[in-house]
Amino acid sequence: MRSFKVLGGSLREQLGDIVFAAATDGNHGRGVAWSAAQMGFKSIIYVHKLTSRSRIQAIEGVGAKVVVVDGNYDDAVRQVYQDAQQHGWQVVSDTAWEGYEEIPQWVMQGYTTMLSEAQEQLAGQGLSKPTHVLVQAGVGSLAAATIGFYYNLFGAERPWSVVVEPTKAACLYRSALIGDGKPYNVEGSLDTIMAGLACGDPNPIAWKILYDCADVFAACPDYVAAKGMRVYSVPLRGDPFLISGESGAVTLGALMYIMEYAGARRLREALHLDRDSQVLLINSEGNTSPDDFRSVVWEGSLPVPEQYKIYVAD
User: Fold this and answer.
1) d(CA 69, CA 49)
2) What DSSP character marks residue 158?
3) Mean pLDDT of the chain
4) Is residue 3 part of a domain?
5) Segment 8-61, tens digit of pLDDT
């Protein structure tokens, strides 16, 4: 990670002793905590009760205090906001609510840095843009930033887009099914191996972009993400080896099913996906939960059910 200079002098005096706060499933909170520490500020990060110990330790390892909330991710979001109001902390969230919209927009704008870099790499390969983008979604901020980025660049000529969520936390998929333009939540434990996507309440700012611009919303069971992890780590001959966590790998699993599963033929044809397509996937996490990673990649947990297995010759 890039290092920042610890703030001092008159600028530090103007800012005072800010405490930055966030709710997280892992990556976002760790990033907020690291950035706060680099600039000499304290941070407090809220996680839900199903957050793995390794993710908590990673956040603590960059200097944050971690608070475990007895609930799911959305409960952690609500709790950190309430406590921040009481203690005067500055919340840095990638999801918005009434009266809190500017910072989430900044976070979404920050995501587009990755896409600008991806476009530079594509240009180096002689490609103007991908033909398709599959992007994972929790509250929808990364997905909206990705699809909105390409919409702004290419308008009607933008890549086909697919938003991918866990079946057990598919708030955007549910919102799309209802189809009245409003965001809708899903409730429950949101217990999915895709911890970074286990969100029940959509970001309303992100939802507006997705409702207007996304082509397809898809909900995937955990074994789709697990298959993506295994394929990334043991690829076909000539493909690169990648370490990807559950939330980062689900789009590869989804792409493989869209391309190869007989029951997905109509979707494949509607998206104009074929052997000549140039598909962009974003690996949003590495081995952030080693126990879960080893369980999937080494031990073969969450195997593909027999009726959904697809065999591909090397």
Assistant:
1) 6
2) P
3) 93
4) no
5) 666 667 778 899 999 998 789 999 999 999 888 999 999 999 899 999 999 999
Q: What are phi and psi of 267, to 5 degrees?
A: -65, -45
Phi, psi torsion values for 50, nearest 5 degrees: -90, 0
Q: Is residue 174 part of a domain?
A: yes
Sheet hosting strand 65-69, strand order edge to edge: 65-69, 42-48, 19-24, 90-91
Q: Where are the beta strands (DSSP E) in 111-198?
A: 132-136, 160-166
Q: CA-to-CA distance for 189 and 177, rounded, in angstroms?
A: 21
The alpha carbon of residue 285 and the mean position of all alpha carbons in its chain are separated, in whole angstroms, by 8
The separation between CA 306 and the C-alpha centre of its own chain, rounded to angstroms, equals 28
| E-assigned strand segments in 25-95 | 42-48, 65-69, 90-91
- Which residue is it, tokens 């995501």? 111
Asked if the structure places residue 97 within a domain, the reply is: no
Q: What is the pLDDT of residues 58-91, one digit of tens each?
A: 999 999 999 999 999 999 999 999 999 999 999 9
Distances from the Cα of 171 to the Cα of 58, 183, 199, angstroms: 28, 8, 7
237 in helix, strand or coil?
coil
State in Å, rounded, how far the first CA of the chain is from the last one.
37
| 80 shares its domain with 203 | no
Beta bridge partners of 136: 164
The parent domain of residue 56 ranges over: 9-91
Q: Looking at residue 283, which CATH number applies to its domain?
A: 3.40.50.1100
The two structure tokens encoding residue 55: 């993710």
When divided into structural domains, the chain yields a total of: 2
Residues 6+ positions from 49 with CB-CB distance below 8 Å: 68, 69, 70, 71
Question: Is residue 222 in a domain?
Answer: yes
DSSP for residue 189 = -
pLDDT of 118 over the 70 cut: yes
As a residue count, the chain comes to: 314
Q: How far apart are CA 218 and CA 137, in angstroms?
A: 10
